[in-house]
Amino acid sequence: MVTAKDNSPQLTPEEYFAWEEKQLEKHEYIDGQVYAMGGGSKNHSLIAVRFIAMFSNHLEGSGCETGNSDLRVNIAETDDYTYPDVSVTCDERDKATTQYITYPSLIVEVLSDSTEAYDRGGKFRMYRNNLALKDYLLVSSTCIEMDLYHKNDAGEWIIINYQEGDTIELNSINLKFAIEQVYRNLILTPEA
Q1: Rounded to whole angstroms, what are the CA distances from 112 to 48, 55, 65, 103?
Q2: Residue 115 to residue 122: CA distance in whole angstroms
Q3: Is there a contact between 147 and 125 (Cβ–Cβ < 8 Å)?
Q4: Which residue has the higher pLDDT, 26 or 129?
Q5: Which domains does the chain have, with CATH numbers?
Q6: Could you give the CA distance from residue 11 to residue 8 in angstroms, rounded to a whole number?
Q7: CB atoms within 10 A of CB 17
Q8: Per-residue pLDDT for 25 more than 80?
């Protein structure tokens, strides 16, 4: 989803939560500033829903929780909050919060032309500081392609590119699936 800086004054986290409850759209909160979230394409929405359904079914009874784009993620050790398209937490500490999670093991962002650079760059730089995060999956909405940023046992981030015919492996939630499962029946065209 696209983010554009809003013309609001700098807020504390508490002021941000109270202010955003009264807004019609969602806003990310970075360094005291709010950024309006733009809408995504039909494919963007359908892909995110497919991940949510797949993860929720796979994790049934595990104690893990799958969140959609309405669930904020608190950037670890900061007062910053983002809205990823999909997140999964298996951390008990996240059960004590009602407005956000802080310790996701998996985050999925569905890419668009307007957000790809941010999702690969600045947003990933924030996310990777979280010790709980193991997998950060970037998913194309215009072609059959995904990039998985996976933290290995040495704590190093490696990038695995998946394309048509590949099987995605998400070690963070012990799940393997064919990439085509996410893209079935979608009309894939480059963004205008």
Answers
A1: 13, 22, 26, 25
A2: 10
A3: no
A4: 129
A5: 40-183 (3.90.1570.10)
A6: 8
A7: 15
A8: no
